[in-house]
Design brief:
transaminase activity; Aspartate Aminotransferase, domain 1; binds pyridoxal-5'-phosphate; seven-stranded mixed sheet; four-stranded mixed sheet; alpha/beta; 2 domains; transferase; pyridoxal phosphate binding; 11 helices
């Protein structure tokens, strides 16, 4: 059987990783400034994390959600404490798209409506509802009439008010910082006004923190820079440091009803062990503070490089926009300088390193980038 060929691949195989480095099948070391789409939060093969998963795997990998799994409550307690949302409830699934799918469902149940406001250049995943609220020309959306969606320009409060005036909107879904859309940051005032308008119109505010959450921006969630509290927050990616897990943080105004949501694998023992280990390491190694400090350092150094048109971002979620397409530059960084980076569209390099990146590693990247650009 051959693989269904829907992703372009670099011609190299990564076989291991340690901290902020990965190693290919020939033993070549790469500085990882991408963390496999923002997934590696605490660094590759962190010993505490490896031990926690290994010990759990020896005991029990999975048992169904028809019996108590105390690891889920452990995870919820740790997440509540570290994120500042201990009064919210947690529903566990396996990925970011699933988190958004369930958040949209909850919003629709809660309000009895099916219109959703999303924003230009948004990306919320590829399941049937998540892809419907995604505005990206490269992503093929199937025919799907579950939700009616209005895509509005980011930061345009007048258009949001206009759309909400119809009284048929169930939810607004917005990324803490747009990742796939090119590291676009919603304005603080816009988020605050959005929060107020959602409350006034009884619309559910969903913050998609799948990419911008879990400490990446130097706060636990990117929206915390605006001091707002959404109704639903979706998480995944860095939550399991590579182990598939996602979640929806649900505000106390939602009442759970049996049968409302469900999952087979969501919150399984192994996933919870991985996610608990991630939060322990984030807390003990102060990784959110590290992301804020090293991220700001990296942003400041990058802004000194004249060939970069614009540097955008917060913490360790950074976009470098160039006047020319970045494909060649990324290839040279990878194959000549052995640095992994990501891209958003054609002209933006996207940096999403492990939150443990050191200042020395940031300097090392700057040196390699300057070599290629000079
Ligand atoms: N939401 C955002 C903001 C994302 O960046 C992504 C993935 O890139 C998703 C949702 C979908 O997550 P997953 O690929 O885990 O389904």
């Amino acid at each position: 059987m051959k693989l269904f060929d829907v992703y372009p691949l670099f011609d190299l195989e990564i076989v291991s990783g340690k901290g902020c480095y990965t190693y290919d099948s020939h033993g070549t070391e790469y500085l990882d400034l991408y963390g496999g789409h923002a997934v590696i939060s605490i660094g590759h093969s962190h010993p505490y994390y490896v031990n926690r998963i290994t010990e759990q795997a020896k005991k029990l990998v999975f048992y169904s959600n028809s019996v108590v799994n105390s690891l889920q409550q452990q995870l919820a307690d740790k997440l509540g404490a570290l994120s500042g949302y201990d009064d919210y409830s947690l529903f566990l699934i396996n990925s970011g798209a699933e988190a958004n799918e369930n958040a949209l469902k909850l919003a629709s149940f809660h309000t009895g409506k099916k219109k959703v406001i999303a924003f230009a250049h948004s990306f919320h995943g590829r399941t049937s509802a998540a892809v419907k609220v995604t505005d990206n020309p490269r992503i093929v959306a199937p025919i799907n009439d579950t939700f009616e969606v209005a895509f509005l320009p980011l930061n345009d409060m007048a258009r949001v008010e206009q759309e909400m005036a119809g009284g048929d909107v169930c939810a607004v879904i917005i990324e803490g910082i747009q990742g796939v859309g090119g590291i676009q940051i919603p304005e603080v005032q816009f988020l605050q006004e959005l929060r107020e308008a959602c409350s006034r119109h009884h619309v559910v505010l969903i913050l998609d923190e799948v990419q911008s959450g879990y400490g990446r921006t130097g706060k636990f969630f990117a929206h915390q820079y605006a001091g707002i509290r959404p109704d639903l927050i979706t998480v995944a990616k860095g939550m399991g440091n590579g182990f598939p897990i996602g979640g929806v943080l649900i505000s106390p105004q939602f009442t759970p009803v049996y049968g409302m949501l469900g999952t087979t694998f969501g919150g399984n023992h192994l996933a919870c062990a991985a996610a608990c280990a991630v939060l322990d390491v984030m807390r003990d190694e102060h990784l959110v503070d590290n992301a804020a400090r090293v991220g700001q350092y990296l942003i400041d150094r990058l802004r000194e490089i004249p060939q970069i048109k614009e540097v955008r971002g917060k913490g360790l979620m950074i976009g470098l926009e160039f006047d020319q397409p970045v494909k060649e530059l990324r290839n040279r960084l990878l194959f000549e300088q052995h640095v992994f980076t990501g891209a958003s569209g054609t002209h933006v390099i996207r940096l999403l390193p492990p939150l443990s990146l050191s200042q020395e590693q940031a300097d090392c990247f700057i040196g390699k980038l300057k070599t290629i650009l000079s």
